[in-house]
Design goal:
single chain; about 450 residues; alpha/beta; eight-stranded parallel β-barrel; 12 helices; 22 strands; binds ligand LLP
Length: about 450
Amino acid sequence: MLETVAAPEPNGRPDGVWSMNTARAESGEVTVAGVPVSLIAAQFGTPTYILDEADMRTRARAWVEAMEKAFTSLAGADVYYAGKAFLSKAVARWMMDEGLNIDAASEGELRTALAGGVPGSRIGLHGNNKSEAEIALAIDSGIAHIVIDSIPEIAKVARIASERGRSAPVYVRLTTGVHAGGHDFIQTAHEDQKFGLSVTSGAAYDAITQIAGTPGLKLVGIHSHIGSQILSTDGFAEAAKVVLDVRAWAAQRGIEIPEVDLGGGYGVRYTSQDAVPPAPEEFAEVLAQAVRAHCDATGLPAPRISIEPGRSIVAPAMMTLYTVGTMKDVATDSGPRRYISVDGGMSDNLRPALYGANYTAAVVGREATGAGCRSRVVGKHCESGDILVKDVSLPPVEIGDLLAVPVTGAYGRSMGSNYNMLPRPGVIAVRDGQCTVLLRRETIEDQLAYDLG
Ligand code: LLP
């Protein structure tokens, strides 16, 4: 069935996929937090990512409140915003304001969070192949924890810590064997992939024993991340049990592990035909039940729990605004189709090409009326797979129309590229009628500046 979007219905409404402050003005034009999209296009150009600040903050706070509520009677909980979904200095600051910490997965993310004013003690560092520089910076900044992802990394982190005369707080990333999540590329807890230390093979137990006996390392937690775009609570409960069993195994050997991180991966709706994912309260309650049941059964003190949501906080808060440049109608075996070309493409949203992800689109610069036409929104790159929205019913669109694709906040800009030497779009935050440039649009001059001839 084709996705039809007549008017943006703010997220939170039964069929809504647009950020909560998206509305259609009487003029027929769409506004975000009171700012007409045509004004954003005129001032900042297109394509541009528009971030509804209040929406993102609200989603972030909802996770903190849900986790606090579910875990008060246990040992409490922390929420780390997964910066890989989308990070800028302002976003890092907002997340801190809302009571979250930051999960960084590279030196760039770590330095952005620090530059945004987040203290190292509120940042965790991930990565399956961390560089010396990343580990050193993490330790120097007083990082909350470094997540150990492989056996050789144990000695590497210990050495770098001792060179700096400090001890390093570490987590161990466990591969729990739980299958969950969207596309194969975003499932992370099966055996045959690059992340983590296997519980099944025993590597996880070896790592724990080794870390406990390594001076300069402080084992503060164990970690599991099962995948991304997960729309059910089952996998999380299952993975939590595996992780807590490992913790109990360690306790029997005198190794106390005070913290457990259950990762991110909470899914969102991309189109109004997608299932509505469980709310943060529901996920939090499932996690708390798993922890409570395990502690009751083992008699162990409850661990402090953390989670790392990224997508569920930022995806629905952002849309990408494009200008329609040209069109063509084709005949296909299944009927006519209109190709609508916009001024961005797979360089600002790789997800459809990489994962076959579905999105929707709407004409947002005016109230477009007329019979829906089976349409495909494509970019301007030199690939026929440069598709942004595979199938959508759109009213007659005109060249020059502003078109928006909602729910692009997670992994849109952060996986963006300069393919075909397109400058990456800027990110404009909108709140209470005011626009703030979070990331300025790149220019061709930026690209020429690092081409040294
Ligand atoms: N924690 C760890 C260790 C992770 O690897 C990830 C995501 C997260 C947290 C955050 O997961 P989220 O809540 O955002 O699902 N580029 C893909 C998603 C890759 C996810 C990578 N890791 C996509 O666009 O679907």
